[in-house]
Amino acid sequence: MPVTPYRTNLFQDRKDLYQFLLACQQVSIEKECTQIASISLEIDPIDPLAVLHCLSKPSQLSFYFEKRGQDERIGESSRRAIAAIGAVSSLKVEGSQRFAQAQDFIESCLINTIKTGDLSLPLSGPHFFGGFTFFEETPTKEAYFPNSTLFLPRWQVACQANRYVLVANFAIDASANLESLLDRAWGDFQKITAIKYRVPEVNFQGRGIFDQRDITDTKYFKLAVLSALEAIESKQFNKIVLAHAIDVISPTLFHVIHSLSNLRRFYPDCYVFCLSNGKGQNFIGASPERLLSIQDQELLTDALAGSFPRGKTALEDANLARGLLNSEKEIREHQVVIDFLTQSLSRLGLMPRRSLSPHLLQLSNIQHLRTPIRATVPADVSLLQILAELHPTPAVAGAPRDIACQRIRSYEAFERSLYAAPLGWLDHKGNGEFIVGIRSALVNGCSARLYAGAGIVAGSDPEKELTEIKLKLQALLQALV
User: Where is the Chorismate-utilising enzyme C-terminal domain positioned along the sequence (predicted)?
Assistant: First the structure.
């Protein structure tokens, strides 16, 4: 993966850009293999969500990822947002080897990538984006997303630490028409840099005109909880996470960009995300749960399990927080996730570190027990290897994991698809971040399917678990427009 020295901004002069693309074509001819030309440069401040709004098309793969609030690595408040649009190379695979195949795909792309520009910038260089469905089995025919989607985008616009970075990637082979490619690239670049606005905030909440329908009757969910409790009592498993889904129908098309804008405003401490499949469907959400991130070989993952609502007054809120921190049931559910994560990392040869007691992650309408876990990652262990080991955690599946996943299939009468599944990005240096696709919705034109789940352990109450799920569904209901 060579780095070619050119001026910092090749888009300042068409001739310089053409010469770089021509040099990449010469390499493709010599190697008899398509080369990817990757250009990184700093640009003026811009809202990546606005870029997604202006540049993306329903027929293209695209990805959006944003996290505001406190950055635990540097101890400061920060914002990180990435919009990835179009695909110069993509992978869709199925089966138990999907994470290994995804790693092979990334490595094969990077071997044939020629990088130029300022690679010292944050989020510079080629990045890969996508998601893996909850279950590895082949999805049903009507499934909108394959088991695995990973792509290298044509355009990537990102901001981090008040730096704004554009990465352009172009696939070039011996037959490429460089003049035509240059014209399209130059036009898209001018369009991106001409964007001078942020996506406007939309206060309208359409819940009053939405038609809501449970996928299965809520009585079915409560019966499933009772059945699960009997199985737990008979020692078949220790925990299972059961989900419920609702369909929301709007008289007009849902506006994905404005819904994402609402999500990032309502839930600044969550990961706001959107994966588009290139066929008109979008999986969006605001997840509080990071599955793992790696930066310079330092890993950070979260044990996130155990939930209470927020209080309507300061006194009630404080009492609920204290109750969560002292709840034997919630702490037991939380400990299951901690044990799983630390044991999984240890099996990979990592040495996990964590605090002795959890603290609270308090969102606008719900609060969770959370324990960050850290580890140093050896050079011979990849992010996707770790991802394959961790997914799904007991926070979204149960324990023992394999038994819980089998029972989820029998209890739930809908396809999870990307719900509670890993979504995120990886870069050319082995860094990356994946979140868990909870508090999420599949948006398809005028309809949206919303998902939420609850962890069932000994002592769970069906009515309370259903109440928790309805509370979690509000995160999307309040934001959809």
Answer: 220-472
